[in-house]
Amino acid sequence: MKSTEPADISQLCIHTITTKPWSIEEAAKNFSASGVKGITVWRDAIERKNIKQTGRMLHEHDLTIVSLCRGGFFPGSNVIKRKSAIDDNRKAIDEAVELGTSMLVLVCGAEPSQSLEDSRKQIRDGIAEIIPHASAAGVRLAIEPLHPMYADTRSAINTITQANDLAEELNSPWVGVAVDVYHLWWDPFLENEIMRCGRNGNLMAFHICDWKVPTTDMLLDRGLMGEGCIPVNKIRSWVKNAGFNGFNEVEIFSTTYWKESQAVFLKKIIEAYKEHS
Amino acid sequence: MKSTEPADISQLCIHTITTKPWSIEEAAKNFSASGVKGITVWRDAIERKNIKQTGRMLHEHDLTIVSLCRGGFFPGSNVIKRKSAIDDNRKAIDEAVELGTSMLVLVCGAEPSQSLEDSRKQIRDGIAEIIPHASAAGVRLAIEPLHPMYADTRSAINTITQANDLAEELNSPWVGVAVDVYHLWWDPFLENEIMRCGRNGNLMAFHICDWKVPTTDMLLDRGLMGEGCIPVNKIRSWVKNAGFNGFNEVEIFSTTYWKESQAVFLKKIIEAYKEHS
Q1: What interface predicted TM-score (ipTM) does this complex get?
Q2: Please, which residues 171-190 of chain B have a Cβ atom closer than 8 Å to chain A?
Q3: Is a pLDDT exceeding 80 seen at residue A4?
Q4: How far apart are CA A276 and CA B4, in angstroms?
């Protein structure tokens, strides 16, 4: 048998939602024991917890807290809803600070009772309104364009082109873009737009998983890297060429994997990561 | 009560698959009795039938046969598969002629084991190869861009921009674009690209339905116009402004509606059409 160097996992980050059945304490312990160095925390994982203590616990496990997921959801059919979204985003920024991370991912939202144009304006206005708070807190806001199949209720920002346009229009060092292969892999302009994103200093985060063939659920059937048809390695090389050298964040929502032993799933994640990132 | 003129349904076309439980004879009889003037025929509806006779039957019901659905599926991982796709497209063109329609809709296909770039090249080459046959037969080929959620196996052509690019590159009077609101509604460039499509003489067909909120199935949960979040009227006005004055084709795949009485469903289609087209 040929002996090979173990593939480098120093840039592997895993989202808490990926191993959803685990508490954040279990996730921290198991990630750390497996040599994982980064964690992105979903807000449901810190609900009803002392956030500062949780952040300390993660750091004690030698985990970099890559980002907090997620703010956003700016559109609303009336001013009260939109004001409440702004308040919640300020709260999320504060939570990011307490936790000890300097990035908040934005899933921008969409309101199906109004036009996408209106939702897009409200997203732009909403982000503009929270920039001062983000700047004062030292928290970067990463706009995550979502797959067009989520344009009804989750995000009116559906391509990296739109996210780039928005980040450039807002023109703040506190605003950038999160690239997720699941949402963007199909886009014929993806390579060019990743380059543009990097060139303008807006490439803040990189999320990976795979698109299963067939995909049986629009939300909860993501695959491990290598399990589907997304060229994760190729997109990773574009992101790298665009100057990004941060964590590769594994973000998988999967009722299939959530039913498995999470310890076994974690091993699979690391194996898939070594092979496909 | 105010009396109003009944809304005009002279440009209403319905796809046979929309009322899938009906045979094509039942569809023809019921469409015709309700004043519907156009029908688009899916190939499953004419399987094992005498196609010429079926076409005559449709014409006897005073129905315009707007198009035959569908050719396409050009990509393949080997030359035998790709050759077989070309043969099948030639056959579909012949079927269109026998049936008595001058348009074949192309769902272009995608092969998940290869890159989207490769699938896109094979689509271009495949269409180029069948143009002489289409031209000789007098059958126009309408490239239908499909929603990005179908980029794995159904189509590597996922935006109207791509379809426009492809139609312009092929530069044949026999090649154009079919605009379906379900696939394209989310696109921020949609209005501009519809104008471009019309300006270049490529706007060949217009398909309507709605995106239900929530959508529970990626394929078989389409809604009636007005039932979801697609601005069908607005997109219709763009298509009209781009010079299109053909049929508005109702294409709905829905296990929900297929379970209902198709006579009741047909009434609902006509009501929804009057209100939202």
Answers
A1: 0.95
A2: 185-188
A3: no
A4: 63
